[in-house]
Structure formats: C-alpha cells, structure tokens
Amino acid sequence: MMSHLIDELLTGSSVNKWILGADEFNILLLHVVTSNRPDKIEKLLDIFLHMKELESCGHYHCGPNTDTFAILLSFLDRFPGTSSIAYDLAKEMIDNMTMYNDLTSIDECYGQKQQKFIINEQCLNAAMRVCTKHLDIDRAERLMNFALSEFGEGVRVNPNLFGMMLLLYKSENLQDKALDLIKTCIEENKAEHKSLNRFLLNASDWPKYKRDGTKIKLCSYLNSFAKILDSMERQEYFVSSVVWKKLLGFSAHVAQTESESNWSTIHKCCKTLISNKDFSKNLNERLILLGLEASEKMKDPQLAADLICYTNMYSSTEHVMDSVERPKGSLPNASLGISPKTYMKAINLCIDNGIPTEAERILKHCYQSNLPPKVVSDMYAAVLDGYVQIGDTENIETLFSNVKSSCIRPSEAMYAAYLNYLGANKKHEKVMSVLNSMLNGSNDDDVTPGISCFSSSILSAINSSNYKDVIQLEETMRERGLGHNASTLHGVLIANARLGRKQEVLNALGSALQTKSPMDSSTFKLCLKYILPEIMDNCGNDIEAIRAYLRSHVQSNPAISNEAMELSKSLKKCLREDGRKPSKMNNQAIIENTRNLAWRSAVRDALCLSNALCKSL
C-alpha cells in the first residue's frame, strides 16, 4: 500500500502541478529505505531524479538537500552492489556544492530566495566514507574544506572524519598534507580528548612501504609529528601516553633501519613520558631500553637516570642510605621487573659520560628494588669506580662508608675501586691496611681479595715506589693460587727491574707464560725494555721498526738468526691480530683470545732471543 501511495504522490506532483518540498520527499525516501519492496533502489533513484527535475524547473526548495544525500549515501554505500551508485551521488553532491551556494535566483512560484546548500554531520560522514572507499583524495579534500569553511556553518567535523582523510593521505604517502591535517584536527577538536587521541594514535603509525613496494622514508614525518605533540603538551592539551609510546616504538624502528637522526625523536618521546607521573607508571622494560639507547646516542646521561628513577612506583626522595634499619643482607620487597642488566646499562651510561652523581641516583632505585644483594654490590662498585675516575674524594669516602654501615654487602669489585682511589691519592699505607684487613677477615663481611684488589694494591705500590711491597704482594697472590692479569704482571716486572733483579724478571715472564696470563702489546714492550734494552733503545715502541731491526741483524749475527726471524714473524702476526675487527664469525671475545695468544708467542720468542744472545757472547 505504501508503494502505491508513493507512486500516486509522485504522479500527482507531476500531473496536478502541486509540489512536495524537499522535506516531504526525504520522508518518502526514508519510507522506501525501510520498506521490503524488491525495487527499492529503482524507486529511490526515481524520487531523487524527480526532485532534481523540479529543481531544474526553478523549484529550488524541492531539490535534493543535505538530508537527501545523507539518506541516499548512507543506504546505497552499505547495500550490496550499489557502491558505485553511491559514489556517483557523492561526486555529484561535492562537484555541485559550490554551485548551490552561488545561486541567487528567485523561485518564480513562491517568490522566495533559493536556500543555500548547508551540509550536516550525517551527510558529511556518509560522503566522506564513500570517498575514502574509492580513494578519491581530491573530492575528499574539497568536502573537508567545504565543511571547515563558512559554508559549513558550524557543522561538527569530528576526528573520525579527519581519520578517513588521513587514511587517504597514507595511501598516497602525502606526509606534508597529513601533518597539516593533524594540526587542523587538533584545532577543531580541542575538547574531544578521547577521539582526538585515537586520531593521533592513528597518525603515529605510517605505512612503511608504498603500493609498488618502495620503502618510505619516515624520519622527517616522525620528527615533525613529535614536534606537534610537544607543542600540544606545552599548550596543556592532553596527549595520551599510548600515543607517545606508539610514536616511541615506531621511531625506534625507523632509527634502526633508516636514519640515526631519528634518535632525537625517541629522546623527545622519553623526556615527555618521564615528565608525567601517570605516563611513567606505564613504561615497561622494552621502552626503558629504547630510552637508554636514546640517552647514549644523544649524550644525555640524566635521561638514563630519570628513566630508571621516575618509573619506580616505590619512588622516594630520601637519600640512598637514609632508610629504616633492616636485617643485614635484606632488601625491600619491591620490583618493577627491570633486569639487573638494564640497571647496570643506565649506571654505565652515567659513568661513561663523567656524571657518577646521576649513577648514584640510580642506586637509590636499585636499593629499593628486589635485586640480589650481589648485583647491588656490583652496581655500587661501578659507581665508586666512576667517582675514582673523576677524583671525587668526598663522595668516594661517603659512599664507601655508607655501604659498610648499611645492609649492602660489599663486593670484591667495590673494595678494588676503593683501593684504586686510595692508590691514586698516594695513600699506600692505607691501601695495605685495607688489603690486610681483607686477608685476615677483620672486616666482618667475608669478602676476600681477588685479582682486582691485588691489581689496585700493586699499582699503588708502584706509584709510591714501594717495590718490595710488590714482591710481597706477588708472593701472597701465589700462595692464594691467583694468576697474573696484565696489570699485576706489569707491576711485578717493573718492581723486579727497579730492584735490579733481572733473573726474577725472566722468571716472572716464564711463569706468566706457563699460566697463560693475558698479554698485549704493552706487556711485550715492557718485556723487551728489560730483557733486550738495546732493541728498545734503537727502535722505541714502533713494532715495524723492531721487525726491521731484527731482520737487519740476521746476517750480521748468524748465531741468533733463527730466533730473530721467529720473533719477527710473531710480531707480524700480532700486528695483523691487533687490526682485526669483530664479525659474525669472530666476536670480540674470540678476537681478544687470539690476540692474547699472538702476544704470548711474541713474548716467548723474545725470551728465546734473549737466551740466544747470552749464549753467543
């Protein structure tokens, strides 16, 4: 029955010359849309064409208006097989919008001025969906510009519409237009926090490849986008932490695959995240590691410390050691799930950049986290060593005394750093006192001296010219079954040479070779200085000059020719190994081991040459 009524209304309108207005026609369109008639598509188009016919005859108030297009586009875009019809209608509407608003003719029947075309939100949404589906960037832009202009007359252009436009820009990699669109969206949707942040989250993720498979360069876009977000923060707009974290992760991918300069964007993201208390609670270890890498690239150790400290949900403003007494060896039961390796990386970043005060700030966080006591002790040792490197006497003494009086159990590395500090400040007597207290167990901490402590003590003895103490320390090392490292071996060689004990120098070298102690170029040069001084006098520290000197003496002294040639060959291998760089097949540890072997061979051949010279005299 409704179908016949619609037909009669249309027929009557044409035959009897009475006219329905656009609103009445729109009601008819809605009845058809909700009906079950099989020819509803044909009937909808009949009504639309009838409205256009009336409009063309000067009855402008009967022509399609914004509601007409909203009804038709919304239905046809979703109805199976009519997407192309919806697209044609959208094109007609958009192409004629300017024309509608330029009309000034008078309706001859009613004597009323033609109403200008005023778009509403439903029509705008429907038309934008159609343009997006058909990737029509030109008409989508014209539609958006119309809605945002004075002709839009207050229509709400929500972030979802901007999101559709952004999708089109992404499809053609129009980054500059996208950035302008983002700024406009922010200005138009200041109060729409949730929907605006959804749009920004979408904007933070750009396609990595074009349609033809070409890789897209994204560094400039991400940097500009970060600046927009930063500007929003300064103007007190609320930007969700999810947006910043998304940008952080995507920027890290670009920095690792495209441009190192993108680490500045990562740095900016991290600074923003940790500056907001609510944001910092949501950081996980992956994001913290990205931030640490950014702080390393940008030479910002303070960021490394902030990342660790500000993400601690149990943060405290108290001093590292100003806490209630706890049983010795125990730590508070709190943890963020941050690994000891991550803590140590942050501490080392601060120390490497000469700011151990920031590293000590991280210690407060370590102390409050559920880390193994030995790990915390090693971290304190690293900070102590950092203070030693810059010669900060006051902080070294304070930190070391606090450790001994707290629940933190000192480590051998911590004692070594402290001994190194004492030796550098010419306090050798105190060095020996601390070492002896470790040896006899009077410190009541069960920490016994290892090779690091003996190395620091021997270095102190050398610097203070207490060579007999070096000999005594070597004897103690031997009794405790400790072999040499490069530092202790150098000290023993120097001490024996200064005391005029050449045979002991040879014995020390022989013992080091037997125990496979690590050796390098400095070990070889020190060896040569004491057992073959004439070569060092003529050649200095130049290995190539030493090889040339050895070859020149082969013919002049046949008795040592074999030994000299062997040493020359060994030195050639040493130079080759020193120049080798890490690769997939040979990592740094393998290279170091091969290098030690080469220099040990050179030291062995130098001893053989020395023995041959002695026999030839």
SSE arrangement:
Elements: H1 2-15, H2 22-33, H3 40-56, H4 66-78, H5 83-102, H6 121-133, H7 137-148, H8 159-171, H9 175-188, H10 193-203, H11 219-234, H12 241-257, H13 263-275, H14 277-280, H15 285-297, H16 301-310, H17 340-352, H18 356-368, H19 373-390, H20 393-405, H21 412-424, H22 428-440, H23 451-463, H24 467-479, H25 486-498, H26 502-514, H27 521-531, H28 533-539, H29 543-556, H30 561-578, H31 588-616
Descriptive account of the structure:
Helices cover 69% and strands 0% of the residues. It is an all-alpha fold. The chain is built from 31 helices and no strands. About 6% of the residues have low confidence.
Characteristic key phrases:
single chain; mainly alpha; 0% strand; 617 residues; 69% helix; 31 helices
Going by helix content, strand content and strand pairing, the class is mainly alpha
Termini Cα gap:
131 Å
The quaternary organization reads as single chain
- Which band does the percent of strand residues land in? under 5%
Q: Give the strand tally.
A: 0
Helix content: 55-70%
Work out the radius of gyration.
Answer: 41 Å
Overall pLDDT confidence: 82
How can the largest sheet be summarized?
none
Give the count of helical stretches: 31
Uncertain runs are 101-114, 313-336
The shape is elongated
